[in-house]
Amino acid sequence: MLEVTPFHPSVSDWFANTFAEPTEVQLAAWPVIAAGDHALITAPTGSGKTLTAFMWALSRFASDWEPGTGKTRVLYLSPLKALNNDIRRNLLEPLHALKAEYGYPGVSVQTRSGDTSSSDRQKMLRRPPDILITTPESLNLLLTTRKGRMALSFVETVILDEIHSIVDNRRGVQLMANLERLADLSDEFQRIALSATVSPLEDVATYVAGRTPDGDVRPVEVVNVAGQKEIEFSVQFPEAARVAAENGDKIWSSFADSFRDTIAENEATLFFTNSRRLAEKMTLR
Asked: With CB atoms 3.0 to 4.6 Å apart as the test, which of 48, 118, 154, 270 could cross-link to 71 if both were Cys?
């Protein structure tokens, strides 16, 4: 099933025993990543892009990257620090399974952001993790210190998640400049950018690529797996709320009853309100 890429046997077996089959984006992107090419990967949310980016790194830790040496090999950058702890948890699950079932080596994963305590930051600098999950701003701070630069001097893969959210603003400019500083420090690395909604693809690929010291644009392979989304849209107003409004009564209890039915019918429900106060009122009801 995974013959498209020479994964380490333990990683290949774990995937085969965990998932029914690779997703379309995984099949398309893994040969590109395994070849060492820079990549811009775009596919719908829920298609497995994060594992797509990490899978080859997991294989390399089992083969030619020695974990636990205090050398950060993989740098994951997300402009949304709220997602970083989720990424860490989702990454630790396969790492624990690989170690328990296949004798996979212990790979350390840590997150760093503005919320990380000073003591934890110092520990990371003294013993850098194998995989560091952080934000563009934290990367900038790391590159301003000698210990931070030393911690990042062995990076071989940089994963840029949610790239669409930074390509047109100052955060993105700062991040791309810092990646060039990192490239000078670690003697180049593989760039893997991820997004569910980014365009125009060729322009974003050029943006991600940056330029070599000679001024050449690095080649970036675009992996575009378009997905068809099924959207069901309707506009509703609860009958009980309509009656309450006509009688001059408050409508919120009627809405709460309707929302409760909606919540019961779904695994996840996302509500938008016009204000925090209204959100709190409906939550209470």
From this structure: 154
Q: Say which residues have a Cβ less than 8 Å from residue 242's Cβ, sequence separation at least 6.
A: none
Q: Is the pLDDT of residue 1 over 50?
A: no
Query: In the predicted model, what is the mean pLDDT of residues 128-138?
Result: 95
In degrees and rounded to multiples of 5, residue 190 shows phi and psi of -85, 135
The two tokens of residue 283 are 């939550």
Dihedral sign for Cα 97, 93, 221, 73, please. Answer: negative
Contacts (Cβ under 8 Å, ≥6 apart) of 210 = 176, 179, 180, 183, 217, 218
Question: Residue range 192-199: average pLDDT?
Answer: 90
* Average pLDDT across the chain, whole number: 90
Strands 74-77 and 131-134, how do they pair? parallel
Residue 247 confidence class, pLDDT cut points 50, 70, 90: confident
Strand locations in 123-262, DSSP E? 131-134, 157-160, 190-195, 220-224
Judge residue 240's burial from the number of C-beta atoms within 10 Å of its C-beta, 0-12 exposed, 13-18 middle, 19 or more buried. middle
Q: How many helices (H) and strands (E) does the chain have?
A: 12, 7
**219: Cβ contacts below 8 Å, ≥ 6 apart:** 37, 38, 209
257: three-class secondary structure by DSSP: helix
Asked if pLDDT for residue 3 goes beyond 70, the answer is no
Residues in CB range of 45: below 8 A, 6 or more apart: 196
Higher-confidence residue of 242 and 1: namely 242
**Cα torsion angle, 67, 68, 72, 77, sign:** positive
Q: In this structure, are residues 210 and 219 in contact, taking their beta carbons and an 8 Å threshold?
A: no
